[in-house]
Specification:
309 residues; mainly alpha; Rhopdopsin 7-helix transmembrane proteins; 10 helices; membrane; transmembrane; transmembrane helix; DUF3112
Length: 309
């Protein structure tokens, strides 16, 4: 063990340069800063009206992580031989997107619970969500660990083990990303129940379209990363087309920007709001049009381990 050692295989996005990467990163930074400010403004305005909606805060957190990611890439472009900055930049590229995956699952979960209460509120399924969130954190740890160890060793056997761990982690992330689509399919194929509930503003169809579009973009991002990871390693001086900077920025940041636009401008804080403390079938029906501004729900304890304070 030693190092860190410079990469010997081609990676997604390649080595950043001052002339190309810094202008692109600067434009993306402006977009992420704008979305961060917008989502925090929505969150604070709603909070003052006793309408707290944590998912806007999560999107703000995602934007902040991307601001850090792009800042690191700009720094890396000016210090191309600093391997530690390269490692940090790579880790942030892979880590930040997980918040969008979680948001999509929460939104799809709310649709399933409203339309199919018997399925959505099932005890086994509720426990499964907790397992999936824990597994998501474990997959992230696996990605970070394998990435770091790879640049600190020249041992081919250790590198091979790290690659296998990385492939397992990114494949799980792809499966996790597709879960909201499975929720929507269940809602569509099962007969509508008499005890189905309504929540938030807007029609069920509009909610499903929002979740479907956002999820498909995230599946595209995760699928591209998984495909690149499963591809045969190529020498750093012979990168494939999918290692190009165009693919790096389009299949990562531009898809994320479009997803942020869908979730922000569709006002999910209004459409996907459910009453505070919803824990069982029938709780969504506690909300009425008159009490909408007052009876608020952040994210229920079964949605994700984030609590409003």
């Amino acid at each position: 063990m030693g190092g860190p050692y410079a990469a010997s295989v081609a990676s997604l996005g390649g080595l950043p340069t001052v002339n190309l990467d810094i202008p692109v990163c600067a434009v993306l930074l402006l977009l992420y800063i704008s979305f961060a400010a917008t989502n925090m403004t929505i969150f604070q305005v709603n909070k003052r009206r006793q309408h707290k909606f944590v998912l806007n805060a999560l999107m703000f957190g995602f934007c902040m992580s991307r601001i850090v990611t792009l800042t690191l890439r700009i720094v890396w472009a000016t210090r191309q031989h600093n391997i530690r900055i390269a490692i940090a930049s790579t880790i942030f590229v892979n880590a930040g997107i997980l918040l969008l995956y979680i948001i999509n699952l929460i939104l799809a979960q709310r649709i399933l619970r409203a339309m199919q209460p018997q399925v959505g509120w099932n005890t086994v399924l509720r426990a499964s969500y907790k397992v999936m969130y824990i597994s998501l954190a474990a997959a992230l740890i696996m990605v970070i660990t394998s990435t770091v160890i790879t640049v600190y060793t020249l041992n081919p056997h250790i590198k091979s083990i790290c690659r296998d761990i990385l492939l397992a982690a990114v494949t799980y992330l792809l499966v996790f990303t597709a879960l909201p689509i499975i929720h929507l399919i269940i809602v569509l194929i099962l007969p509508r129940r008499s005890d189905a509930e309504t929540f938030g503003k807007g029609s069920l169809e509009s909610k499903m379209v929002i979740v479907a579009l956002s999820t498909c973009l995230c599946v595209l991002i995760a699928g591209f990363k998984t495909g690149v990871s499963w591809g045969s390693p190529r020498p750093i001086f012979m990168p494939a087309w999918y290692h190009s900077k165009a693919c790096f920025y389009i299949f990562n940041f531009m898809c994320e920007i479009i997803t942020l636009g869908i979730l922000t401008f569709s006002r999910i804080d209004q459409r996907f709001f459910v009453p505070n403390g919803s824990k069982k079938a029938g709780d969504y029906s506690q909300q009425s049009e008159e009490s909408f501004p007052e009876r608020e729900k952040e994210v229920s304890s079964d949605d994700v381990t984030v609590e409003s304070r």
